[in-house]
């Protein structure tokens, strides 16, 4: 039986493993179906992580985290978790996709979030063929071409800036006339001559052919329509919480969730179920910053350590 099972290998999960194993827990396994690093590895620029003055990509920043966090005995299993449950005797059961059940004394869930689809007509049809949610992954394919970006938050603006370094022009489409992003980022976007702001506008439809996207129909609040002849559009309209592993066979969650599906925790990352902790973007009121996720993970790791030792 494991002392601690950590579900998710992003900044929160890795840091939780570091603090739990360094604190003395011997059997700690992090379940992450891919390579550790999390959602942040798709970010093009990180410039606000304390102690790192250089601007770097999310992939570069997370490169050394696994080695450090596994230094004290944290193990990584490349398995996907289907569900977490708890028996009457207090033992947690971690059900893997292949059917194996792993027992654990405590669990930290750090499954984070994934990019939300906009629901625009044509988005699903052309996803992966001109529609993307990752500028770092797919921006290179549009070198010296025009592209569109949909969204008004920090991610949308940051990725628009990244694409402006690659593409000939970036149309930034937002349904309002003001952005939700930080003032510093907004100012950078407004000063960038390769970014055209298409405000108070929505995307009506993404169109294309067998080769992929070749246009985006946009309409502003006055009913004026515009056809942007672009081969690609990047969608950044928020995130969906990855809470599926907490849903039980009867459809009810293992612990208390908010209206939006985030896990309700206290300041110690404790959920409503004893021995179960949540950290990072999954939890309620998460700041969705790497430094905050790492802090959550450290707190959860320490609390899991105390719980198991008790």
Summarize the structure.
Helix content is 21%, strand content 27%. The chain has seven helices and 17 strands.
Task: Give your account of this protein's structure.
The structure is a single chain. By secondary structure, the chain is of the alpha/beta class. The chain has two domains: 185 residues, FAD/NAD(P)-binding domain (3-Layer(bba) Sandwich), CATH 3.50.50; 105 residues, FAD/NAD(P)-binding domain (3-Layer(bba) Sandwich). Helix content is 21%, strand content 27%. The strands form four sheets. Strands 1, 2, 3, 4, 5, 6 and 17 form a seven-stranded mixed beta sheet that branches. β9, α5 and β10 form a beta-alpha-beta unit. α1 runs parallel beside α7 and α5 runs parallel beside α6. The mean pLDDT is 95.
Number of helices: 7
CATH class of the largest domain: Alpha Beta
CATH architecture of the largest domain: 3-Layer(bba) Sandwich
Q: What name is given to the CATH topology of the largest domain?
A: FAD/NAD(P)-binding domain
Features:
FAD/NAD(P)-binding domain; alpha/beta; 27% strand; 7 helices; five-stranded parallel sheet; 310 residues; 2 domains
């Amino acid at each position: 039986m494991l002392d601690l099972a950590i579900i998710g290998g992003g900044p929160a999960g890795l840091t939780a493993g570091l603090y739990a194993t360094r604190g003395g827990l011997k059997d700690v396994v992090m379940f992450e179906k891919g390579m550790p690093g999390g959602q942040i590895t798709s970010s093009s620029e990180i410039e606000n992580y304390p102690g790192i003055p250089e601007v770097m990509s999310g992939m570069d920043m997370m490169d050394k985290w696994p080695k450090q966090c596994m230094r004290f005995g944290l193990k990584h299993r490349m398995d996907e978790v289907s569900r977490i449950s708890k028996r009457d005797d207090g033992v947690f059961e971690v059900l893997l996709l292949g059917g194996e059940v792993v027992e654990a004394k405590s669990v930290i869930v750090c499954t984070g979030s994934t990019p939300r689809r906009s629901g625009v007509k044509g988005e699903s049809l052309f996803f992966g063929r001109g529609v993307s949610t990752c500028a770092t992954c797919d921006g290179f394919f549009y070198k010296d071409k025009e592209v569109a970006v949909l969204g008004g938050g920090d991610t949308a603006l940051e990725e628009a800036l990244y694409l402006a370094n690659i593409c000939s022009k970036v149309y930034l489409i937002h349904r309002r006339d003001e952005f939700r992003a930080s003032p510093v980022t907004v100012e950078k976007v407004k000063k960038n001559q390769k970014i055209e702001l298409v405000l108070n506008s929505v995307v009506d439809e993404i169109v294309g052919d067998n080769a992929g996207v070749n246009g985006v129909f946009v309409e502003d609040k006055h009913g004026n329509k515009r056809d942007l002849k672009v081969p690609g559009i990047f969608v950044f309209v928020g995130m969906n919480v990855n809470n599926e592993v907490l849903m039980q066979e009867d459809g009810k969650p293992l612990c208390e969730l908010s209206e939006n599906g985030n896990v309700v925790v206290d300041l110690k990352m404790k959920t409503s179920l004893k021995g179960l902790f949540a950290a990072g973007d999954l939890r309620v009121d998460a700041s969705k910053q790497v430094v905050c996720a790492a802090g959550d993970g450290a707190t959860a790791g320490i609390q899991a350590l105390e719980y198991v030792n008790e």
